[in-house]
Write a structure and sequence with these properties.
Elements (H helix, E strand, L loop, with lengths): L1 H8 L8 E9 L5 E7 L5 E3 L10 E3 L4 E4 L12 E3 L6 E2 L21 E2 L12 E4 L5 E2 L11 E4 L5 E2 L12 E3 L6 E2 L12 E3 L8 E2 L12 E3 L2 H5 L3 H7 L11
Parallel strand pairs: 3-5, 4-6, 5-7, 7-8, 8-10, 9-11, 10-12, 11-13, 12-14, 13-15, 14-16, 15-17
Antiparallel strand pairs: 1-2, 2-3
Length: 249
């Protein structure tokens, strides 16, 4: 599990044993939703329960640090969610298939966006990943509909299929920290026209098929080290079935 590995790398795993205490929080709608509280006193894991399909908006309570696994999964009418500062993990499938979600601002405190966290959220037209985020998980934003993506300076790794089949995406800008773009990360982003990496980004690898099928690409800016010593074979594999070609002189 991506979250477990991330917590282990930060030596936090032992703090995240699920407790049994359940409290109720007013969602601002007609009914209350329950929250599971983790054993560590300063951690509140948001896991609303009830008729999730009726939920149209939600304000995550102050003090929350973790949005729980599948917390809002299947909330097909959820249009707006407010995530406060202090949240630093959005767990597996937390907002899976929240297809109506439009208004989303990720807090600067966020560190980890886990596997499938926002998969199928087709209502978002733009997205900015805060500088504090370090890791974007497997299929985290697969099948989303935003047109513009800005990835913050703290992101070092984009996992496999993270943005796969975001068919309306037209531009993506990578921050200064990016090191790895894994397999199929942007495969099927068929409207993608502009890809920009920060000039001094320490990019180490664009894995096979990472930008496969980007047939409308017009502008590609690679980091300086890639321009000075281009790994032609790697680039050719990354941009398979694209309209851009790499060759050595």
């Amino acid at each position: 599990m991506l979250l477990t590995n991330w917590l282990r790398s930060r030596k936090l795993e032992e703090d995240f044993d699920i407790g049994s205490l359940v409290i109720s929080v007013d969602s601002g709608e007609d009914e209350e939703f329950e929250y599971v509280v983790l054993e560590r006193e300063d951690v509140l894991e948001a896991c609303p329960e009830g008729d999730i399909e009726r939920l149209t908006s939600f304000v995550v309570p102050e003090g929350t640090e973790v949005i729980g696994i599948e917390a809002f999964s299947g909330a097909i009418n959820l249009r707006k969610v407010v995530i406060p500062e202090g949240v630093y993990v959005i767990s597996i499938d937390a907002f899976y298939d929240c297809r109506a979600l439009e208004n989303l601002r990720l807090p600067s405190s966020l560190k980890c966006i886990d596997n499938g966290a926002f998969e199928g959220c087709r209502g978002m037209l733009k997205l900015r990943i805060p500088d504090g985020v370090e890791l974007i998980g497997f299929e985290a934003f697969k099948d989303c509909a935003f047109e513009r993506l800005v990835i913050g300076n703290g992101v070092e790794e984009i996992e496999e299929s993270a943005f796969q089949n975001c068919r309306r995406m037209q531009s993506v800008s990578f921050g200064k920290g990016i090191r790895y773009v894994r397999r199929r990360a942007f495969e099927g982003c068929r409207s993608l026209k502009t890809i920009r990496f920060a000039n001094r980004a320490p990019l180490l690898s664009l894995e096979q098929d990472s930008f496969k099928g980007t047939k409308r690409l017009k502008s590609l800016k690679l980091p300086r080290r890639y321009r000075e010593c281009p790994p032609y074979g790697e680039l050719q594999q990354a941009f398979v079935d694209s309209n851009i070609y790499f060759y050595s002189r």
